[in-house]
Design brief:
The chain is of the alpha+beta class. It is built from 24 helices and 11 strands.
Length: 789
């Protein structure tokens, strides 16, 4: 007898000790949450976000005692008509006195008047870094509210870096709650359609939710090694619900098939054990594939991607473990409950509805509902093009996918800046009014220079020349007559602020930065011997971040392709499948990116999806899509190809194995795709543009992968490849037996039932609890041995 795998042994123990398994899992979840809460979350600091020249400039400024702090602006204007100077002056004094008394405030600047004289602005500089904004700004907002009430004749409002940051965070939390409220009902409805049982609906949701809870605790612990940026928990919710439900679906589907095949001859524990030998292995392979693929994000050397990768890896690992340990225990408990109900009905002489078959003749299962038969017919129709004309289907489907991918060639990557945030945030409304009155504040470039103290005079003179040149340049905004210069106490570091009036994500803003770095700086400060220069600011951060990601993208993509190929080869012992899987993933990603560019890079869909176009795509989305989709695509690849390989190993002709394998897994793969698409599509309704784009592209990618790649391209390719699909594996080199499954096409519905529907039970060395049980009895009873033969 073949040695049982780890998944089978784990399922067997869990099935024999269901109470211990369930209690152990709950203890594990509570322990993770408790330990994580005790350790607390370690959030990333400003230093963790530094990238490129902009990061180097911020480090120079901080080391020199000139850190770039967040600034708030209190705007004072009249509700109607001209601004009353006396009333405005009183309000300015009130704001200044109250703000200076706050420990969170570093300094308060003298009031500045707009060019039309209608608005006064009081600039307030905060202590601490940008990561402290969330806790530092509420006291300032409270002061502004008090001043507003004290001066009812004026309109007083606050906006700025910290206010916007807090508003975005608050809006994200509300959006996620809305997403969860949409996702959960749709998931429950989908599961109810698949299983037709309220009890069975609760199992996937329960495991997904508990897996997410355990992962949140583990993520808090992991943050002390890799700091959290605030996006990790969102990723845990997003991926946790998707894969948690998916893994449970695949396991439940196979458990039902094994129960039907056994026809009541196996106990619930043995049925679950049988399912573990196939579905359990597929879940482990799939989970490991997602984990390995996601590690590619660490190659980006970016704190945000580190946080995304950590959350994804942890939640997939926990969901995978729960599916092969506690899930078998829950299924045994439910199975025994059903068996007890059946026994009671028999004792009362009532008929028993069974999920088994009518007898050994292989008649259709009683449990097959009209919906299941219709589902089989639907998938038979969908697979008809690939079955009848595989070459034509493959060419048309590939060309269509390539056509969708073409717009991706014109993709412009941009880092979403403050201008792209939703105007539903009060601070953003104030931000727009601030820029209407003070347009020069839209873009701020910070030039940082470090040199010997003896060169301090030369540096200031060069920076004054630089400021004068910028004032005469149309790319920059004209500010005050005196340059905005600051020097450190040791006179080694000097900082100059320059302004531009274009939106932060516009091409003009990027051109002004490039002109500053490559032309103005070398012509002025570049002549000071030994001076080290660097430029930062919101535009500089975005440009450097995109450049950093473009540099890392080939490395990440190469790693992904290599790992996808390696994992497929290891799972199926086929180089051909490894190459095919990598190519299909590239095709799926390219098509999804093409759709993303079509929808979000232009402005035609702004009203439809409620966003303001950046004339580009958020720089983090493509890399994120590559990694997550490569991992999630392996889910479908593993589960579909596993069914095909299983049939082929049992002697079913490759052609029929392909059709049977895809059709038998179609319903559960479709259901899993619906759950994933629902989770991802709910993000399209969020206000944050980057989250909209991520949700849209992932939902589109999953739809294309499930309904084009797996229904048209994959079966067509496998039918054309035939036995070459399995090269160089030797397990498929024997002659194919046309009597097993039949060489002819079956155009009717395929039930996916192992042991029924037209092909024989495995004759390979695959683990089979029913055969094991017969062998054990035969060893102790010769009569039974002869009967079994």
């Amino acid at each position: 007898m073949r040695k049982r795998s780890v998944t089978v042994r784990a399922a067997r123990w869990s099935a024999l000790h269901p109470g211990r398994a369930v209690i152990g899992w709950l203890v594990f979840v509570v322990l993770c949450l408790g330990v994580g809460a005790a350790a607390g979350m370690n959030s990333a600091t400003s230093e963790d976000f530094r990238v490129g020249e902009a990061g180097r400039a911020e480090a120079l400024a901080t080391d020199g005692g000139l850190p770039l702090r967040s600034t708030e602006h209190v705007l004072i204007r009249a509700a109607k008509g001209p601004l009353d100077k006396a009333a405005a002056a009183a309000a300015v004094r009130d704001v200044t006195d109250r703000m200076e008394a706050l420990p969170e405030v570093a300094s308060v600047a003298p009031p500045a008047r707009s060019s039309d004289g209608r608005v006064l602005r009081v600039q307030v500089e905060l202590h601490g870094s940008e990561q402290d904004d969330q806790k530092n700004v509420p006291p300032l907002q409270a002061v502004t509210e008090k001043v507003k009430k004290a001066h009812p004749g004026l309109v007083i409002e606050e906006t700025g870096d910290a206010s916007v940051s807090k508003g975005v965070d608050d809006q994200r939390n509300k959006d996620l709650q809305l997403s969860e409220a949409i996702t959960l009902p749709v998931t429950l409805i989908t599961l109810a359609v698949v299983f037709g049982s309220v009890v069975m609906v609760g199992v996937p949701v329960l495991l997904a939710v508990t897996s997410i809870m355990a992962t949140m605790g583990l993520a808090m612990l992991a943050s002390h090694l890799l700091p959290d940026t605030g996006v990790g928990m969102s990723m845990i919710l997003l991926i946790g619900m998707a894969v948690g439900v998916d893994y449970t679906l695949f396991y439940l589907k196979r458990e039902r098939e094994e129960r039907a095949r056994a026809g009541g001859r196996l106990s619930s524990a043995a049925v679950v054990e049988a399912a573990a030998a196939t579905a359990g292995r597929a879940i482990v392979v799939s989970g490991l594939a997602v984990i390995v693929s996601t590690t590619a994000l660490f190659l980006a050397r970016d704190v945000i991607f580190d946080s995304l990768a950590t959350g994804t890896i942890l939640v997939v690992a926990v969901a995978m473990v729960s599916s092969v340990t506690v899930l078998p225990a829950l299924l045994v408990v439910l199975g025994r409950r059903a068996e007890r109900r059946a026994a009671k009905r028999l004792a009362k002489g009532k008929p028993v509805r069974t999920r088994g078959m009518r007898g050994r003749s292989g008649m259709r299962r009683r449990s097959e509902t009209r919906g299941e038969r219709e589902s089989g017919r639907v998938w038979s129709v969908l697979l008809a093009p690939a079955r009848k004309r595989p070459a034509l289907t493959l060419c048309i489907a590939v060309l269509a996918m390539l056509g969708l991918a073409v717009p991706a060639l014109d993709m412009h990557l941009k880092n979403p800046a403050r201008d792209s945030f939703s105007r539903d945030i009060d601070a953003m409304k104030g931000y727009d009014r601030l820029l209407d009155s003070f347009p020069e504040l839209r873009v701020r470039h910070f030039v940082v220079v470090r040199a010997d103290a003896a060169r301090a005079g030369d540096v200031r003179e060069a920076l004054t020349d630089l400021d004068r040149a910028a004032q005469d340049d149309p790319l920059f905004a004209r500010g005050s007559d005196a340059p905005a210069l600051r020097s450190s106490a040791d006179h080694r570091t000097t900082l100059l602020e320059l302004n531009a009036a274009d939106p932060t994500y516009s091409r003009n803003a990027e051109v002004s930065l490039e002109h500053l770095r490559k032309d103005l700086l070398p012509r002025t400060v570049g002549h000071v011997p030994g001076a080290e220069t660097a430029v930062t600011g919101e535009v500089a951060r975005g440009v450097d971040y995109v450049g950093h990601q473009n540099d890392k993208l080939p490395l990440v993509l190469g790693f992904l392709l290599l790992m996808t190929f390696a994992m497929t080869v290891l799972a199926f012992r086929s180089v051909v499948l490894g190459l095919l899987g990598a190519l299909l993933n590239l095709l799926s990603v390219g098509s999804a990116l093409g759709l993303l560019v079509l929808v979000f890079q232009g402005d035609w869909a702004e009203g439809l999806l409620a966003f303001d176009s950046l004339d580009g795509i958020s720089s983090r989305v493509p890399l994120f899509l590559f990694v997550i989709l490569f991992g999630l695509s392996m889910d479908y690849q593993v589960f579909v190809v596993s069914r095909i390989r299983e049939a082929a190993l049992n002697g079913v002709p490759t052609r029929q194995a392909v059709l049977d394998g895809i059709a038998s897994s179609a319903k559960v793969v479709t259901s899993a795709a619906i759950v994933m698409v629902t989770v991802f599509a709910s993000f399209v309704m969020l206000h944050i543009l980057e989250m909209k784009q991520m949700g849209f592209v992932l939902a589109a990618a999953v739809l294309l992968d499930a309904f084009v790649i797996r229904v048209m391209i994959l079966p067509a390719a496998l039918l054309l490849l035939g036995r070459a699909t399995w090269w160089p594996s030797r397990a498929f080199r024997g002659p194919e037996n046309p009597a097993i499954g039949g060489a002819q096409d079956r155009t009717g519905p395929i039930t996916g039932e192992v042991g029924g529907g037209g092909w024989a039970r495995p004759q390979s060395n695959a683990y089979d609890p029913l055969r094991v049980q017969t062998d054990r009895r035969a060893q102790t009873d010769p009569h039974r041995a002869r009967t079994a033969q």
